[in-house]
């Protein structure tokens, strides 16, 4: 956390999976080669991976499991109490990318963006903790389930006969098992097989019913209910692969699909199952090998598209602020002599850097980067900076440079409050903007350049937290070389009663609805025009 003279509310509210605060929603998820699953308050969810998803990396499937669990459980109200959700996973990569809110891998980075989208829509904060694989038994069992096949099937008569025998022996009287809800006047014990989002309602109905009921649920679901204190009796645990259900007769009439995309998805799913059977017969190690060996090879990507992608990747190498510094240094070099570029030999380099004699020492490194960048953009060979004939030249240039450092005085808390009080007396939109900048710069202890580029989507109000705060997301800072980003909390009111986050909220009410928040007044007097506010203003 950044240090300042104001009181800082500690944002690290989860240290490990063993000391999670009370009242925080906990979601547990896990994945296997065939499917994934998750659990929240006894509500299970599981699914099967498609043929294409099954060959993805285990890290991708683990992270995608978190997305599916959040999508399903946020609809049921997870995190609505205090706006916090803890995801428990036995995959360290998933825990790291969720907490760092960044991943260098493109596929995992897309998943991180999906999780952040869910946070903004549900107004929750998601963190992850690592748990040992031995403690993740419930989600692991769900990830190996075969799916909700019994939505379109019914319990077999053989299973009903076995359940009737077990129920008679448990209750001490002769009873018969009845499939589903029984009609009035019919004696027997009801047998239900819930699926998907039916588990919680089926469990509540069974606990409040006057007569006992039999629920066919996965072992992980039953174990979770018993740990929550639900009174239940464990009957026969059916063997893996045992036929519990039989297929219902097909419904008369044809199924109307929504479009060609649905039919295409059905054909792809059918082909994936066919490939899986062929892979087993051929003894292949994975479906990917069989797909590559088959005639159904993907069309090659056009080269012009690859060139565009490569240019986008190169453009992302330099930050906008770095490009601005390079352009300013390039203009200074051209004012010295407009014919110094390109630098193809050691003598060209000496003439190009000669004007830096006696200037700031950091400008030497900046100009080296500028010359490399110019040569790259003009498709020219790189300058010979590593030549032995330039070793003594750069050594002497550094010795003659101005290496003095300006000392900066740090503002005290009282001085910052007086500055805020001064802007309050102005009573203008620019004053409201400057107050928000002052609070962010002093409380977060961040560079002014990192604050001025913030957008509206970088501020999230956590009004259900205790105490409530405004979260400011810094995408990248000078010490964050990999661009993982930092989430900085700002309490609405400090412990001494100083309004902090409230100042940010007041500014957001008047600020532009899209784009950069902090904008300048143009030459015609237009308030907060499209021109962004620069650090020199």
Automatic annotation (TrEMBL):
Record PANTHER family: REVERSE TRANSCRIPTASE DOMAIN-CONTAINING PROTEIN, RIBONUCLEASE H
Top-rank lineage group of the source organism: Eukaryota
Stated name of the protein: RNase H type-1 domain-containing protein
Keyword Membrane: no
InterPro entries, per database record: DNA_brk_join_enz, Hepadnavirus_pol/RT, Integrase-like_cat_sf, RNaseH-like_sf, RNaseH_sf
Location of the region described as Disordered in the Swiss-Prot/TrEMBL record: 256-302
Skewed-composition ranges (Polar residues): 266-287
Keywords tagged on the record: DNA recombination
GO biological process, one term: DNA recombination
